[in-house]
Each structure stands twice: as C-alpha cells, then as structure tokens.
Design a protein that fits this description.
Layout lengths: L4 E2 H8 L3 H9 L6 E2 L5 E3 L1 H15 L4 H9 L5 H34 L6 H29 L2 H14 L6 H17 L7 H13 L1 H4 L4 H12 L1 H4 L11 H16 L11 H9 L1
Antiparallel strand pairs: 1-3, 2-3
Helix pairs in contact: 5-6, 6-11, 8-9, 9-13
Length: about 280
Amino acid sequence: MVELWDIAAITRRTGLTSRALRHYEARGLIQPLRAASGRRLYGAAELERIHQIIMLKRAGFGLQTIGTLLARGQHDLARIIDVQIEGVRAEAARLAETQALLLAVRARLDRHEVLDPATLCQLIHDTQSATTAEHAAWRRLSARYMDERVQEDFERVLPAMAGEFGQDAYSEKWQDLSARIRAALPLEADGETALGFVREWMALLAPFSAVASPAMWESTRAMYDEVDNWRGEDGLDPGFDGTVWRFIQQATEAALARGADIGPVPAWFGQRSSTEQA
C-alpha cells in the first residue's frame, strides 16, 4: 500500500512551510496527488523531488534553473545524499580545525605568549569563515519562508542593513532586550511597560523597517512565528525565543489598537494594520 501524507504532515516533518510547497507547485516543480476532496497528498516520489529541489537551492540555483535541470530527467538520489554527506564532513572538519586553533591560542595566552602574525591571520580567516557560514545558514532558513521574489528583495537591500545587522554589538542588544522582557513576564500586553518594550523592539528593528516591503515584513513575521522550531539549528539564534516573540506581537497589536506611538515602522505599516483589524 502506498503511503501518502497531507501537506500538514509534510510541513511538520520537514520544516518547510505550506507556502513554499504551494509555490513549488505553482512553478511546476512538484505535482502532488489530489484526494477526492482536493486535498494535496505527497508520496515518496513527490518527497524525493522536494529533496532534490532543496539540495539544488542550497547549491545556489534559482527555481527557474532548477526547473530546467529537473526537466532533463531523474536525478540520482544516492549521489545527492553523497553530496550532503560531503558537505557535513567538510563542515565538521572545519569546525574541528577551528576548535584546535582556538585551544592552542588560548594555551599560548595562558602562558602570556605574544601571538605571531601567522596565527592572527588564521584567527581572522576562521572568524570570517564562520561569519560566512552563519550568513549561509540564515539564507537557507529564509528560503523556507520566502519565495524567490522576496529573497531577491532581501539581497537587494542587504547592503543598506549591513551597518547594523550581523554585528556582535547589535546581537547583544537583542539578547539584552529579550532577557529584560522575559524577566518582566507575565506582563499585561496593553500596559505602559509593554509599550516601552515595543518601542525598544521597533527601534532595534529600524534598519530593516526602513527598507522592508510588505512582502518582506510578512515573510519575516511568518518565519519568527515558528522561531522555537528552528532556533539553535545551524547555530542560528535571533536573540529571543517564541515566548518573547509572541508577547511583542500581542503588545504591538494592543498598542496599535489604542493608537499609541510604537516607534519607527514602515510608512505602509499603519495602513496594513488597519486593514487587518477591519
């Protein structure tokens, strides 16, 4: 008997969103089966196809190119798995080398030795590699929640956000705010303390708000709605968890409902919020 799963089961087990699966279907990359009720059903063949799409996306191909590649015929699943294994092994080796270097440097510092230029250059190289790996991990995550157009919009405006986003000091600000919010909970979402937290949150978010389109904003919100599902994956940490995120969403809605100033937001934000509440 052929085992078939519905779209809810697929999203729960794979971490993909229903939006992403429907987008792949709309682009003709997958063709799920349909129950008599019209419900989408996925079997082994469809899941293998989805796996191929994700692997090709991670390799840097756009959906149009992926469609062309897949149209040329069946791809060898064993070979795709081999590529994944090679990638995991390479990353494990890189991390092991970095750990060995850091331990050696720490031992030299404990002996009060002066670090030579070659060692310092290696430290810079490994730090830069780790930063690049983190950026790649964020791109893989965002691909689950954003269609190609929104991803392209992010790539276009990323230079404008680079001054703050990704900097250690900026990450520490998020962690500090998150810690203070958690320490204050439980807290009334419509109070002045909550409004103060919302204003701090929006101030930190200002580099993104200044360039975000409605589609970018909504896709990002959908991603953070599931933050507890991916936080810690590939070392990713936005600085807050689902409890803090949900509280900020409730406090923001409460502030907007009473017409309070919540700080810097996109020009279209108020119009969007009014439409949602209508």
